[in-house]
Write a structure and sequence with these properties.
Elements (H helix, E strand, L loop, with lengths): L1 H32 L5 E5 H7 L1 H9 L1 H13 L14 E5 L20 E11 L3 E11 L5 E5 L18 E3 L5 E11 L13 E7 L11 E11 L15 E11 L11 H11 L4 H7 L9 H12 L5 E2 L5 E2 L5 E5 L5 H11 L3 E5 L5 H4 L1 E5 L7 E5 L1 H4 L4 E5 L6 H4 L2 H7 L1 E6 L2 E6 L3 E6 L12 H4 L4 H4 L4 E5 L5 H17 L22 H14 L3 E2 L1 H21 L7 H15 L5 E2 L1 H18 L1 E2 L4 E2 L2 H4 L4 H18 L5 E2 H12 L3 H13 L4 E5 L2 E4 L6
Parallel strand pairs: 1-2, 8-10, 13-20, 13-21, 14-17, 17-20, 22-23
Antiparallel strand pairs: 3-7, 3-9, 3-16, 4-5, 4-6, 4-7, 7-8, 9-10, 11-12, 15-16, 18-19, 24-25, 26-28, 27-28
Helix pairs in contact: 1-4, 2-3, 3-4, 5-16, 7-18, 17-19, 18-19, 21-22, 21-23, 22-23
Length: 698
């Protein structure tokens, strides 16, 4: 017993000596701010320098070490406010790599040990009071006991004075501390092969509560605890199987995206060599989804989306300028849209892939839900787009998502945030996510003679948020069909075996990508982390001339071919192009690439076929300006005829429109239907007769 007491005294003395040697100034600053500031952060590396033995003891017996460290800290000769007891926390950070544990690997070997866990918070509870010092009062003799509660403390029931089982807790006189519980999971970039994310419960106390939010990546330092099972209602559970949680000592926010990829010196050499290759842009583009034949413009756009624009830019009024590039693939079934999405999600270290039919609005963004973690209370839970922040989200069957749920994406796509106001909880999460979506036409195949909004259940307001919208069509072309078939069949013949003999002396090199996926991933990660291009004056002029030129053309034709929103899209694409060669400057060649892609998309989906002119209203409004002009014309015809007739015959409207305004009968009838059922400007008096709806004036 004496040996143990001597050991404890020596330990406390050593810890006090360490704190005096390394943290005397920080302790004095802490005392000045106490109790507003209640924690001293201690770096593990400092303790290791002072005494490797003490550092090892901290990892193996953290409860004992931290208890004596707190006592040593509380006994320091410091000046604090009157009537305030100096009892700060000691929070350890920067554990060695040997103590870093993946969420899926946390197990029995770590119980009671100090560990570090890199994880992503998925939900958290509200703050609840937890007893820190229980005041026990005897009902017989009124004797009082103050018992500090540790992880393994068991409250006594028998009074030592009167020897009766009469001890009860006095809640009003007990000391409480804030407790918050949370759930964290494996970071997405650490998941490979479709494995489900493992989760672990976190317990956070006192000044650490509310210092994090769902969707945030954190490095947690804490002690692994176990708790006895609590069977759910109507269910039995083995009393020998315990659940686990981490008692958190320190939380460090980790802002990581693609740079999670480990890049060695050899990798850096390959990356810098590749960047000097004049053909690097073409090599990167050809390396995107090499198993899919054709779709060159789409692959070029996907490559630029992976690189992204220059981050952390702000407007003069402090607003965030989006650097994420959003792309929508629309077109025929069986045209490899899903495979393109899946390839990009495999290539990006941080990505989420979801299918439209299985997605809800809260599953994409964030939700508040009742949860056993909060013991019936409400918890905030991050959705797929929040978890994929600073990465890429692949959303397949985008058209199958319900309108109410899809509406939650407007804020994500424009400002990179998710606002939640549910169950009395108001919060905002970061969701700086690049969205790659795919949609199928509701009539089976994509019809180039119909406008996108007519073929897809996607509102125009959301369509306009995408930087690039590609129609992917299955065109009947004999030469192209032969090349596509050859490309697919060669892959099946080779079957991934580089040494197999194939008739005709053909080899895998014919279809192999110029860059291996691993090198391409590291190249993109390096560019995103280290390269932040800015526009040159020449590139500025190029983009401005393109924009102004199209606007002038629009003034002549009477339509708006391009809006100011596309300028930012051009800049993002230009910055991404500069990143492909690790250039800190956006040159004219980068602006040309951006203009080429935007122009390709505009001529593919924003062309008013009836007048042969570009019209941005096709995307932003769902139909071209010429359609709305004709709609106004038909409405004006009805108004004119109402001066002669009490109600206007539809046949008379059709005749007037065809005779004086060159509007064909079928189109005129569709316009009348839209005026009746969509805009409610007309109503049917009786079959075949309509009138204008009069607006009520107060």
């Amino acid at each position: 017993m004496n040996d143990m007491a001597a050991e404890v005294a020596a330990l406390a003395e050593q810890l006090e000596e360490f704190l005096n040697a390394y943290y005397s100034q920080k302790i004095a600053q802490l005392a000045e701010g106490y109790p507003s500031k209640r924690s001293l952060e201690v770096a593990y590396s400092d303790l290791e320098k002072f005494s490797p033995q003490l550092a090892d003891e901290l990892l193996e017996r953290p409860d004992v070490m931290l208890k004596h460290a707190r006592q040593a800290l509380a006994q320091m000769p410091v000046q604090v406010m009157p009537d305030v007891k100096f009892e700060p926390h000691v929070r350890v950070l920067g554990l060695p790599s040997s103590s870093e544990v993946r969420v899926e690997s946390i197990g029995a070997a770590h119980i009671g040990k100090l560990i570090a866990v890199d994880c992503m918070v998925t939900k958290r509870t509200e703050i609840r009071p937890k007893v820190k010092i229980a005041l026990m009062r005897c009902r017989r003799c009124d004797n009082i006991y103050k018992i500090p509660l540790e992880a393994d403390t068991i409250l006594p029931e028998t009074c030592e004075n009167c020897k009766q089982r009469a001890l009860v807790q006095d809640e009003e006189e007990s000391t409480f501390v804030d407790l918050q519980r949370a759930e964290a999971q494996e970071p997405l970039e650490q998941l490979r092969g479709g494995a489900p994310a493992t989760r672990v419960e976190l317990w956070i106390e006192d000044d650490l509560v509310n210092t994090f939010f769902p969707g945030q990546r954190v490095l947690v330092t804490g002690i692994l605890r176990i708790k006895p099972p609590t069977p759910a209602k109507g269910k039995s559970v083995s009393k020998f199987i315990y659940s686990k949680y981490i008692e958190v000592l320190h939380i460090q926010k980790v802002e990581k995206e693609f740079e999670e990829v480990d890049i060695t010196q050899e990798d850096r050499r390959k990356i810098t060599t590749l960047a000097k290759d004049p053909d690097v842009y073409a090599k990167i583009t050809r390396s995107i989804a090499p198993s899919i034949y054709g779709h060159d413009e789409v692959k070029e756009a996907l490559a630029l989306q992976l690189f992204g624009g220059t981050p952390d830019k702000e407007t003069v009024d402090g607003g965030r300028i989006r650097n994420d590039i959003h792309i929508l693939l629309i077109g025929d079934p069986g045209a490899a849209k899903t495979r393109l999405l899946q390839y990009v999600c495999r290539l990006a270290p941080k990505s989420v892939y979801v299918g439209g039919k299985s997605v809800t609005g809260t599953g994409l963004t964030a939700s508040a839900e009742k949860d056993e973690l909060a013991e019936g209370g409400w918890t905030l839970k991050a959705g797929a787009l929040v978890l994929a922040s600073n990465g890429i989200a692949g959303v397949d069957e985008f058209d199958k998502i319900d309108d109410s749920e899809r509406g939650a994406m407007h804020e994500v796509m424009e400002s990179g945030t998710v606002s939640v106001a549910k169950a009395g909880i108001v919060a905002r999460f970061n969701a700086k996510t690049s969205i790659l979506a795919a949609a199928n036409p509701k009539y089976g195949r994509f019809d180039p003679n119909m406008y996108p909004a007519q073929q897809f259940e996607i509102p125009p307001t959301l369509l306009s948020r995408f930087d690039l919208i590609f129609p992917i069509r299955d065109i009947l072309d004999e030469e192209r069909d032969k090349k596509t078939a050859d490309h697919i069949l060669l892959q099946h013949m080779l079957g991934g075996k580089k040494t197999v003999e194939v008739p005709g002396g053909r080899s895998l090199k014919e279809i192999a990508p110029p860059l291996e996926m691993d090198l391409l991933r590291k190249y993109i990660a390096y560019a995103r982390k280290h390269v932040h291009p800015i526009l040159t004056d020449e590139a500025n002029e190029k983009i401005k001339d393109f924009y102004v030129g199209l606007r002038k053309l629009g003034a002549q034709t009477g339509a708006v071919p391009i809006t100011a929103r596309y300028i930012e899209g051009l800049v993002r694409l230009g910055e991404a192009s500069a990143k492909t060669r690790l250039s800190p400057r956006v040159e004219v060649m980068d602006a040309d690439r951006a203009i080429k892609l935007i122009d390709f998309v505009m001529r593919s989906i924003m062309m008013d076929k009836s007048l042969g002119r570009l019209d941005s209203d096709i995307i932003s409004m769902g139909k071209p300006k010429s359609y709305f002009d004709k709609q106004k014309t038909v409405l004006e015809i009805v108004r004119e005829l109402e001066r002669e007739f009490d109600m206007v015959a539809v046949e008379r409207i059709v005749e007037e429109a065809r005779k004086y305004h060159k509007i064909e009968e079928g189109e005129c009838r569709r316009l009348i239907d839209d005026l009746r059922y969509k805009t409610s400007d007309l109503y049917e008096v009786k079959p075949g007769f309509v009138k204008v709806v009069r607006q009520k004036v107060d």
